[in-house]
């Protein structure tokens, strides 16, 4: 009961912070997600730096690890946690400045120089496995920094009325509403009707029935969002021109890619042998646990919306 109360309180506070940060102002959203990006990359780097990949693979095969590589052995991976995190946060802020039109594309040059440094520095650090260091450093940028940066593309759109770039919170907010709705619907439907496993090798708890239930609930919520965005003429928002079918499409994109995002993080955790990515959110785990679905859903939503612009 105590854990349930803790989980509920954390969940309510989390949703309140997310809704306030996204719906309040554009600069509040940028500040919030720059912080989220930094905290998530910091957590990711800590996880991979503490993971002894060679010993883990040896134990997974049922072999006996060498005595010299027993408890307390040095990790195979040594990612520069501070610089990697700073680079990811800078990439997010650079995208925010570029998408708002405040700065030109030259803002990305310092980021490129940082990436070059992270490669060249391995020549002099004499780490055990520089290829692993490079791989996980770049993975933090591709898996976390870049997807989070794409929320700026969703948020700063050209307002049809003024023809200028404006902060339009409904699109990023709708992605998270769909993700939360899908999680709720999948949990309820899976608990009541779940029999057929969706992906037992990675996530034994997920079922086809739960996924279908979550998708149906998302379609209902998409219809509600469509109704309010088209009926409220005060919303300065390009999404107000979306038909109900476009909202359905966005909802389904979020359902599919959000589920894949959840499975990707589950595979990551199984690979390194952990249950939760952290404990910063009591009852909910770490930052990766909380944002795993969005890391696939946000870039997928961007691709969907630009596809609509070109072919819709």
Record keyword descriptors for this entry.
two-stranded antiparallel ribbon, 312 residues, 69% helix, mainly alpha
Explain what this protein looks like in three dimensions.
With 312 residues, the protein is mainly α. It has 13 helices and four strands. The strands form two sheets. The protein has a two-stranded antiparallel ribbon. Strands 3-4 form a two-stranded antiparallel ribbon. Strand 1 and strand 2 form a beta hairpin. About 5% of the residues have low confidence.
TL;DR?
This protein is mainly alpha-helical.
Tally of contiguous helical segments: 13
Major β-sheet annotation: 2 strands, antiparallel
Rounded to the nearest angstrom, the distance between the terminal CA atoms is 49 Å
Structural class: mainly alpha
- Which strand order do you get reading across the main beta sheet? 1-2
Strand content: under 5%
How do the SSEs run, as a string of H and E? HHHHHHHHEEHEEHHHH
* Helical fraction: 55-70%
The radius of gyration over CA amounts to: 21 Å
- Give the CA-based shape: globular
Number of E strands: 4
Mean pLDDT: 88
Low-confidence stretches: 58-73
């Amino acid at each position: 009961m105590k854990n349930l109360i803790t989980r509920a309180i954390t969940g309510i506070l989390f949703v309140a912070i997310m809704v306030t940060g996204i719906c309040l102002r554009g600069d509040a959203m940028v500040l919030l997600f720059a912080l989220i990006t930094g905290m998530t990359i910091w957590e990711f780097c800590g996880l991979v730096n503490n993971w002894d990949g060679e010993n883990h693979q040896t134990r997974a095969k049922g072999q006996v690890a060498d005595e010299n590589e027993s408890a307390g052995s040095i990790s195979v991976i040594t990612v520069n946690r501070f610089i990697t995190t700073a680079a990811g946060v800078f990439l997010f802020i650079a995208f925010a400045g570029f998408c708002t039109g405040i700065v030109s594309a030259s803002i990305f040059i310092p980021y490129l120089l940082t990436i070059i440094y992270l490669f060249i520095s391995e020549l002099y650090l004499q780490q055990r496995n520089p290829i692993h260091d490079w791989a996980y450093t770049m993975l933090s940028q591709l898996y976390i920094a870049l997807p989070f940066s794409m929320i700026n593309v969703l948020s700063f759109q050209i307002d049809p009325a003024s023809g200028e770039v404006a902060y339009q919170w409904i699109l990023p907010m709708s992605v998270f509403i769909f993700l939360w709705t899908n999680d709720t619907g999948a949990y309820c439907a899976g608990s009541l009707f779940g029999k057929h496993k969706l992906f037992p090798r990675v996530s034994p708890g997920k079922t086809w029935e739960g996924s279908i239930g979550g998708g149906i609930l998302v379609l209902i919520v998409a219809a509600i969002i469509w109704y309010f965005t088209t009926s409220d003429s005060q919303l300065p928002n390009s999404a107000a021109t979306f038909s109900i079918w476009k909202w359905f499409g966005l909802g389904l994109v979020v359902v599919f890619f959000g589920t894949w995002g959840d499975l990707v993080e589950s595979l990551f955790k199984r690979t390194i042998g952990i249950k939760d990515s952290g404990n910063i959110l009591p009852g909910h785990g770490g930052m990766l646990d909380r944002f795993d679905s969005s890391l696939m859903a946000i870039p997928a939503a961007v691709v969907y919306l630009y596809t609509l612009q070109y072919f819709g």
